[in-house]
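Holo prediction — nicotinamide-adenine-dinucleotide.
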Amino acid sequence: MRTFNVGLLGCGVISRTYAADIKAFYPRLNIVACADVNRSLAEKLAREFDIPKACVTEELLKDEAVEIVVNLTPPQLHVALDRQIIAAGKHLFSEKPFAQSVSAAREILTLAEKAGVQVGCAPDTFLGSGLQSLRWYLDKGLIGKPFFVTANMTTFGYETWHPNVEPFYKKGAGPLYDMAPYYLSAIVSLLGPIESVAAYGTRGLEKRHLYLGPRAGEEIAPEIPTHYTAILRLVSGAVVNLNVSFDIYRSTLPMFEIYGDGGTLTYPDPNFGGGAPRVYRKEQYLDPLFRDTDEARARKETFYELPELFPRPKDYSRGIGVLDLARAIETGRPNRAGGELATHITEAIEGLIESAETGAFYRMCTGCEIPEPIEPGQALGEI
Ligand SMILES: NC(=O)c1ccc[n+]([C@@H]2O[C@H](COP(=O)([O-])OP(=O)(O)OC[C@H]3O[C@@H](n4cnc5c(N)ncnc54)[C@H](O)[C@@H]3O)[C@@H](O)[C@H]2O)c1
């Protein structure tokens, strides 16, 4: 694969993970510039990660050396900036959410097609070693036919670690737009597209106290529900319950489990690229009926850890989706974290919000191919 020149747009919290991981693990991605609406933030990132050019948005988009722009700005700005990135003739990789509506998502894809550029979107965590290993085990039938998934993103918002949380409590963000994409893309990439959704939304807290950043000590009122409890049915017939929350201090709910007619697979956290799946097979449950020994009874109580089948350079990592986009640009093959998947996830989120507002089930209009799996046995950065 040839080397692609990448520009980072938005030099805040997550830009540091992208810069560090791309530099450390993906030598075919060469970060040639970074930009922010605030030039000094771009200069700071450039100094920290030895990026040759720091500039503002307009300069980045005019830079002929930049081939792929990675949009790492706040959620509500993605679509407006994506339009500019595409108009400048750059390939686009956007952080999630891809868009706040299917119509906006489609507009971006149409603009990109007309401009002859390609589009990728986070989350790319489903391309990491943990979820790709889970995929391999599922596809091999390790738990038989999956019929139920539980996915639980139970956190207490961002205000104890993020200096600029306000956008995350405004319309167009919140736990559904900001965190559900990790869980939804994991589900769709493992089990296929969604057929219908329903949800209730609520708020655990009416005010959020800001602990960090320039407004530390102030309180803000969220514009949106900060907790959603949802159900989904997949085209395969499998059903899902999904909880996404910024209101839960601590929970013992599993973050991600898949149940099949032959057993259960459990996974630590779809927000992370790495993580060893664990399995419980039906034989463990049934064996003590035939051989009532201490050993059989102990196995009946145990989940067994499965090896990860791909390199895991870090647990929490970003950037593999940008590599996947670069591979697609070079080979003409569709990228896995691509526009069709991002539009399907956008519709699911829009549908969940609509359902929470109307009390009715929402039937999905978009579909999506299951992204091609990564083959085990390859070196780090080969996808
Ligand atoms: N923080 C995380 O851990 C994390 C993890 C995964 C994904 N994300 C996603 O990444 C995106 C950015 O999140 P963040 O936490 O880094 O936010 P942030 O607020 O820390 O950084 C955003 C940066 O964008 C800049 N910006 C604002 N308007 C701009 C414009 N018009 N042009 C150029 N730059 C502009 C801001 O000055 C800021 O430096 C969000 O969509 C978020 O959902 C964040």
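READOUT: The mean pLDDT is 96.
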